[in-house]
Amino acid sequence: xxxxxxxxxxxxxxxxxxxxxxxxxxxxxxxxxxxxxxxxxxxxxxxxxxxxxxxxxxxxxxxxxxxxxxxxxxxxxxxxxxxxxxxxxxxxxxxxxxxxxxxxxxxxxxxxxxxxxxxxxxxxxxxxxxxxxxxxxxxxxxxxxxxxxxxxxxxxxxxxxxxxxxxxxxxxxxxxxxxxxxxxxxxxxxxxxxxxxxxxxxxxxxxxxxxxxxxxxxxxxxxxxxxxxxxxxxxxxxxxxxxxxxxxxxxxxxxxxxxxxxxxxxxxxxxxxxxxxxxxxxxxxxxxxxxxxxxxxxxxxxxxxxxxxxxxxxxxxxxxxxxxxxxxxxxxxxxxxxxxxxxxxxxxxxxxxxxxxxxxxxxxxxxxxxxxxxxxxxxxxxxxxxxxxxxxxxxxxxxxxxxxxxxxxxxxxxxxxxxxxxxxxxxxxxxxxxxxxxxxxxxxxxxxxxxxxxxxxxxxxxxxxxxxxxxxxxxxxxxxxxxxxxxxxxxxxxxxxxx
Length: 499
Prior knowledge:
Elements: H1 3-36, H2 39-56, H3 63-69, H4 75-107, H5 112-119, H6 121-128, H7 130-138, H8 142-165, H9 170-191, H10 206-236, H11 239-273, H12 278-305, H13 307-314, H14 322-339, H15 342-348, H16 352-404, H17 409-436, H18 446-469, H19 473-483
């Protein structure tokens, strides 16, 4: 097994552990906080997030990704990027402090002025952590990243719960965010054998800026896609509606972050090592896409069918307005779970300018869809249009991934066909079961839970069987890594076949 293959598998293992543990803890913390705080308080944080989020795009202008992508980067380059990042962080924090009253006036929420000024400290913490975080990822050292993220999540979550219990309201969420960022900074520096030197050589930035500036452009467009919904809902429908929408969107993202983001962040540094071998990148990309689809498609089907029960258990009866939104967003989550994997291919191949041009078209379409949906259909219409426009953008981005790797788009869909077909069967079984035994009104009775547990198990077995007979790459990878059997299938991270 090659060194790159071994490091990728080890990195993927620890990245999965990181996401599973951290997202479980996040879900528990979120469930506790949802019972201590109101939708309006979550809405206030959503407004702060919108205000700060756009500037977050500029905090490293893509230089962290450039560190990962460039092979043979020098210590002098790293120090130069570190000091530039701090300068950018200071400027952005100052901009927020000065514009906070204007943002508060825009949302007609006077509390936002102080909230935004305090949250601006996050820019200082995160800008200082850019280089050490990038070095950890470049080394595919996701074991260290696991301990870092576990510590920051626990510390921030415990502080947030404590402040919420004491009645600090939205400040509990602010305290949670700030401590998470600060703890991440301290832990990252303790984990890397690197310290910045008093060096700033602007000529060393040229190659990094050629890579990072188009990435900054794409990130800017992507920000508006991710946040135009929050901005418009907060402005026209108010803090309560924004809090409800954020809860639905956040719950949809949990499995997405746990699976897709886990694999995606390992793919980039791994692909960067083989960036000149298009065939090998395609081989690994298809395997990882199949693996992600195998896990996320049934998860999103389950989330859509049992949205009412999930919300009742996780957030409580006060959040039932989230249910119809979550049902629609579950389809969006399925699309985004495999769409997320395209980015590492663009990054590793150094095609950030192409990524920007593609995003300029596809994501502008998504923004237009979100605006039209909200204007003509309210919150529900916006979510539907978000789903439809995301599907179109997904097809465009995937087409150019295939183009870069000398493949046809039909090759892409053939690769994910087993997971798609098996998921339709799985979804159909759950819907029939829910229609048959889902109108009693007692959604959490022992008989309801027992019936749907049995049906869910049978549906899962049918799902796995379809994957087996259709020779799903994701299932083959899972079986090989669980049982350690060598079969006549492509190995997980090797371009050769094993016989």
